[in-house]
Amino acid sequence: MTIRILLVDDHSVVRQGLRMFLSLDPELEIVGDAVNGADAVHKAHTLQPDVILMDLLMPVMDGVSAIGVLRQELPDIEIIALTSVLDDSHVFNAMRAGATGYLLKDTEADELCRAIKAAAAGQIQLAPQAATRLLREVAAPESPETLTTRETDVLRLLAQGLSNKEIARELVIGEKTVKTHVSHILGQTGRRQPHPGCPLRHEFGPGLVFAMRRSCGHGSRETQIFLSVFLSIRVHNSPLPKEYPT
Question: What is the DSSP letter of 101?
């Protein structure tokens, strides 16, 4: 099954170049292109792509605004910001709006193809320079508190989709204690309490789960910063899935 892609860029030469080399991969299908964010929203509704490659600096509606609208209206579509812009505000705002990744236009063709396929599976894709800027947003919080060993254990189990009751059984602690740990974790990152009984993977999306699992093997401070990035910004406005009605 091919991955359906919508290209969004206000420069025709960029769209043509992307179409040319992405079309060489038999697993990828270009279903259309758009010239600005508003056009992207309209065509995404019509074409229903799996992945959107979104430029950020465009007329009529910019890429960050379009990402926010699409995340609300078509939450199943994954969006990669593909841009030449690399400053803290654009990186942070694009990811906060709900982008699955942030890549630069000088990304090699093979690497971009791999990133599209990973994004289609819900995995976060970040250029190293973008990751550095995201980490800088949380590396020096106003309150220098870090997660305790037990809170980190709880967070890892949440990333696996376990409920509070299952975590309590796994760690041999009370369910009320688990809830206290979860509240403290969310409090440190400014997150609201998740829907009762809703595993954190549904609250923050599959990209967060991927990020957590990747980071679990690193040192505790690096893990906490990495998790904090995605807890703070990932899927900021995503609705809960239908199996967890409000």
Answer: E
